[in-house]
Amino acid sequence: MFVGEVIGNVWGVRKVRELDGKRLLLVRPIDPETEKPLGEATMALDGGVGAGPGSIVLVVDEGGSARAILGSKTAPVRTVICGIIDRVSVRGKDKKYA
């Protein structure tokens, strides 16, 4: 799992049936305290939380868990956005995003 910022949308002409109606987004991992980027952006499927560009999100980056969130044993997916983060508390300090 990692915390990331949605930095864009991804469009595809065709999707497999299991992904119909699901949004593809571009997510960049960030440090939740400083919001500094921690790596390269990756494509992630919105797991039904309604994330969009600018959202700070919790991302599952493991195929079995991602498919469990979607409720599909056969969906060809590895990375799913499973939550939108409103606030992070670290060492007694709160960082609000919403």
Characterization of this structure:
With 98 residues, the protein is mainly β. The protein has one domain: OB fold (Dihydrolipoamide Acetyltransferase, E2P) (Beta Barrel), CATH 2.40.50.220. Helix content is 8%, strand content 41%. The chain has one helix and seven strands. It has one helix at residues 63-70, and strands at 2-10, 24-29, 42-46, 56-61, 79-84, 87-90, 93-96. The strands form two sheets. Strands 1-2-3-5-4 form a five-stranded mixed beta barrel. The protein has a two-stranded antiparallel sheet with strand order 6-7. Strand 6 (87-90) and strand 7 (93-96) form a beta hairpin. The longest helix has 8 residues, at 63-70. The chain is elongated, with a radius of gyration of 14 Å. The model has no long low-confidence stretch (mean pLDDT 91).
What are its keywords?
OB fold (Dihydrolipoamide Acetyltransferase, E2P); single chain; 98 residues; 8% helix; 5-stranded mixed barrel; 1 helix; mainly beta
Task: Map the helices and strands.
Blueprint: E1 2-10, E2 24-29, E3 42-46, E4 56-61, H1 63-70, E5 79-84, E6 87-90, E7 93-96
Parallel strand pairs: 3-5
Antiparallel strand pairs: 1-2, 1-4, 2-3, 4-5, 6-7
